[in-house]
Amino acid sequence: MRWGIVGTAEGAHAAFLPGLRAAGGTAAAVAGRDLGRAEQYARDNGIERAVVGYQALIEDPGVDALYIALPNSLHAPWTIRALRAGKPVLCEQPLCGSLAETDRVLEVARQTGTSLWEAFVFPFQAQFQRVRALLDDGVIGDLREIYSNFHFDVRQPRNIRMSRNLEGGAVLHVGCYPVRLARELFRAEHTAVLANAEWGGGGVDVEAWGILDFPGGRKLLLSCGFRRAHDTFTRLQGTEGQIHLTNPFHPGPADTYEVFAPGPRAGTRHAAGDEPSFTAAVRHINAVLNEEEAPRMLAVQTSLGTARALRDMLARVTVARA
């Protein structure tokens, strides 16, 4: 499959492109607003060619699918244009910066029938499947509580994550990961939210904390932000044990998950081999587009609940700020 990259963001070359190549796809083109910058990006990252303008890439007959690597504020308009042009899309998470925009994009996906995925790739990974199997087998009893961090240090004030106009902030950029994880593992939607934040940058939440209630008294406790060292530690607390994951979202060769429970399935396991984080998701999308597999985890099936939870968290932290 020939992929086009919409935008020249850091995440595309750091995460998506390695996964694309490991999955057997081709980086056919990249689009930027400036030709010189796009050409340099293409040379630096082994992309076949550069294109000026996002619309030109959408209309390019030499591209089969699109990865949208733009700031949150641009996800909705360019995803909609791509869907209406019949180009399947993998859009960076969160799908949109607001619930209203998410509703609009998902409605276009339904109307056009064009495949759309939100780039939460961890549900496709082997580690997630193994952990879910442990939970389904009752190894730690009933899953009651998830404690999940996602932090890293952002030092550049002009980073898009620090821009309110570009819909940055900790909740949208990294808080979305624990929310999606909890929805997947609880197989339910949240019922209530408590949240607070510290504000900075260009008027965004630079750190945030929240508690999301789920049916049956289950809870997600999350912490996210841009002011401390990289941290994705997650603890799954059950009635008979725990599972600790050093990185449930983008595990690398050094990451592990550890089972604390009675019985033979306790112990530490490696989270992943050398396969890049995006590989399994892109491999699945390629197979869908080649009509070799039925689509799984399309945005129309998975994205609305996360958007609602993020809306509720942002409402809470904004009220707390006032």
List the helices and strands in order.
EHEHEHEHEHEHEHEEEEEEEHH
- Helical content band: 25-40%
Helical region count? 9
Number of strands: 14
* Fourth CATH level, the homologous superfamily of the largest domain: Dihydrodipicolinate Reductase, domain 2
> What separation lies between the terminal Cα atoms?
49 Å
Strand residues, percent: 25-35%
Output the structural class: alpha/beta
Count up the domains.
Answer: 2
CATH class of the largest domain: Alpha Beta
Biggest β-sheet, characterized?
Answer: 8 strands, mixed
Assigned CATH architecture of the largest domain: 2-Layer Sandwich
In CATH terms, what is the fold-level topology of the largest domain? Dihydrodipicolinate Reductase, domain 2
Contiguous uncertain segments of 5+ residues: none
Mean pLDDT across residues:
96
Gyration radius (Cα, Å) is: 19 Å
The largest beta-sheet arranges its strands as 8-9-10-7-11-12-13-14
Cα shape: globular
Describe this structure in words.
- This protein has 9 helices and 14 strands.
- With 322 residues, the chain is α/β, with parallel strands linked by helices.
- It has 2 domains: 2-119, NAD(P)-binding Rossmann-like Domain (Rossmann fold); 122-277, Dihydrodipicolinate Reductase, domain 2.
- An 8-stranded mixed β-sheet has the order 8-9-10-7-11-12-13-14, covered by helices on one side.
- Helix 1 (10-22) crosses helix 8 (279-289), helix 4 (75-84) runs parallel beside helix 5 and helix 7 packs across helix 9.
- The chain is globular, with a radius of gyration of 19 Å.
- The mean pLDDT is 96.
